[in-house]
Structure formats: C-alpha cells, structure tokens
Design goal:
This protein has 339 residues and is mainly beta. Helix content is 1%, strand content 47%. The strands form 7 sheets. A 5-stranded mixed β-sheet has the order 3-26-25-24-23, with no helix packed on it. A 4-stranded antiparallel β-sheet has the order 1-22-21-2, with no helix packed on it.
Length: 339
C-alpha cells in the first residue's frame, strides 16, 4: 500500500517533557538527531533493470469523478482504489465500475492505510479519527470499528486468524495486535531496536502483506531499511534498499505551552509496497529525479536480499499484487505489470 505521510505535528508541551526542558514562556528549538543505522556498501550497487510488459486495464478518463487516486488494492475480482480523501471505488478486471463507497467524513479523519482482508474485504484505517472501516466484496460497509484503544494507526496487516497487527505512533509499545471489535490482544515494542528508537514522526512506514502469508514487511517512508517480520511480530530480518537513505532528524519547537514537531530534510524511500509470490515489491522514491516513483525494487521475502528492479515508463502512485497479478496505480489509470 501507499504511505500517507505526516511531516509535522502539534501537541501540548507536556507530551514532550522527555525531549525538552524549558521555561513555559520561552521560545525554544531543538533538533533531535536520528540514530545512525549502518548501511552496507553493497546496498549502493547499480540496479538490475527489467522492463516488464504493461497492459492498461483502467483508464480514469472514462470514469467520472476521479479526482485524486492515491491507494490501490488488487483483489480476486479486480481492483479497489482510494479516490480523494474518503471515497473507495471497486473495479472489475475489465475496468468497469462495480461499486463506489463514500466513507463518512467529519473533517477530522484521514485514511492512513488500506489493506486487503479475508474474503476479499477491504480494510481502511482512519488514523486521526481512530476508526477502522471494513467493506465487503460488494463495497458495503460491514463494520465500523473504534480503534481508540489501539491508538493512531500508521499501518497495519490483517492476519489469517482474523486479528490485526498495527504499527502505531506510540513511543513505547507501537506494535498492537487487536481483534475485529477493537479489543486489545497484545502490545509490544518494535522488535528491532534502531527502528524503535526513532521519533514516531521519523519512523512512518507502510506494510507489505497478504492475509494468507505468515511473513509481512515494514517499509519505511524515509529510511533505507526493509524490515521483514514473522506472524507474531517477534522476529525481524533486516534488508536494505538499493539506495542508502538516512532517517530524518526531527525539529521540535516550543512556544509557551504549545509545541510543534516537524521533520528535517527528508528523502522519500518506500512510496508503496506489496507481496508478490516470494518477493516484496517496493515502489521507490530516492534522490534520482529521473527514476523517482518509476522504479519497483524486488526483495526476497525471507532474507531481504535485493533481486532486481522493474522500470516503469512514468511515475506511479501505488503497487498491489494478488495471486499472479501485479497492478500499478498512476494518475491516469491502473496498469497490469506482467513480469
């Protein structure tokens, strides 16, 4: 799925007492340096470029009301895209519109992640509003779950037993397993310490997953590592992106009793990720403007080893796989990539 990024937050000063100590009436600024995560030199080797066959399956010019497509989920019956802030549209394999669903929007919510659930359901996390919506295969709202006990969901993965594992913005125990009613099953620290040590703003990420697959991966939006987890989120295998990217520093500014937190200079890393057979596919940003959002890097699901890259003719917004299909979302439509 594709990342929904946050570059700054505003919070009461009391939430940052472990970071700052200052007079409540003063103006203070502090840069919180990101931990240095070692990257092997081999990760900077040139990409092995493949140019796959591409077939356009959906042309948005023929679909009324497509304004800002941003997320994509491949399903057994076709494709689901997020259009604008709160609309989900289901398409058949031939590009026909099967259903459209408008989520309720009170102005406070923002879709932070969309994933394929069991039985071709689509699960939508609204992080700021603390909601999880579940649509059935026909696009009907099957559940509206409060996730207030879970916290702000950055990304999540539905599991085959019906539970859900979320990576949240909690600074102590960000990995939360919960049931389809929002009940907490467990909370734990992220099992790789360098990533856990990052400020929550800097460790924003997205998940590559499939409900039937035991393994899943966390692909950071702003850092150069790929983290592969087991079904219990207790063990991590660390891979590295082809282009070394450092996690960003965080700038904390306080004025009176208010504080704001923002990222320093960032370089996009993972823009979207999905599982395809025994590989993790990552739509990559990077510093090369000629290739930005045009490269899908392939990594071994078990070891994180780089396997090669697909080059796209233009910029993409998301990538999603289902069975033998890999679908790519662009501003103009959906393309099936045939390796």
């Amino acid at each position: 799925m594709m990342a929904s990024r946050i570059y700054a937050t505003v919070a009461p000063l009391v939430a940052l007492t472990t970071i700052l100590a200052c007079d409540a009436e003063a103006h203070a600024l502090r840069v919180v340096r990101a931990p240095q995560i070692a990257t092997p030199e081999s990760s900077a080797t040139p990409r092995k470029i493949l140019r796959p066959k591409l077939d356009t399956v959906i042309a948005f010019a023929t679909v009324p009301g497509i304004a800002a497509p941003s997320k994509l989920v491949a399903t057994s019956y076709g494709y689901v895209i997020q259009n604008g802030v709160t609309e989900l549209i289901g398409f058949g394999h031939n590009g026909s519109v099967l259903w459209r669903h408008q989520l309720a929007d009170d102005g406070s919510g923002r879709i932070s992640d969309v994933q394929l659930g069991l039985g071709d359901s689509v699960m939508i996390a609204d992080g700021p509003a603390h909601r999880l919506f579940i649509l059935d295969a026909a696009g009907h709202l099957a559940a509206d779950v409060s996730t207030s006990r879970v916290g702000h969901i950055d990304c999540f993965t539905p599991r085959s037993d019906g539970s859900i594992i979320a990576v949240t913005s909690d600074s102590v125990a960000p990995v939360v397993r919960f049931d389809r009613h929002g009940g907490i099953i467990s909370r734990s620290k992220f099992p790789w310490r360098p990533f856990a040590a990052l400020n929550p703003l800097a460790r924003q990420a997205l998940v590559a997953q499939a409900p039937h697959e035991a393994m899943w991966a966390v692909a950071p939006s702003f850092g150069g590592v790929l983290l592969i987890l087991d079904s219990a989120a207790s063990h991590v295998t660390v891979g590295h992106f082809v282009e070394p990217i450092s996690f960003p520093d965080v700038i904390v500014t306080t004025e009176g009793l208010n504080s704001s937190t923002k990222l320093g200079r960032v370089t996009d890393a993972a823009d979207a990720a999905t599982l395809y057979k025994n590989e993790i596919l990552v739509l990559f940003g990077g510093s090369d403007t000629t290739l930005k959002h045009r490269i899908i890097d392939r990594f071994d699901l078990r070891t994180g080893t780089y396997r090669g890259s697909y080059e796209l003719p233009g910029r993409a917004r998301a990538v999603s796989a289902y069975a033998d299909r890999v679908a790519v979302l662009t501003a103009r439509g959906v393309i099936d990539l045939r390796p």
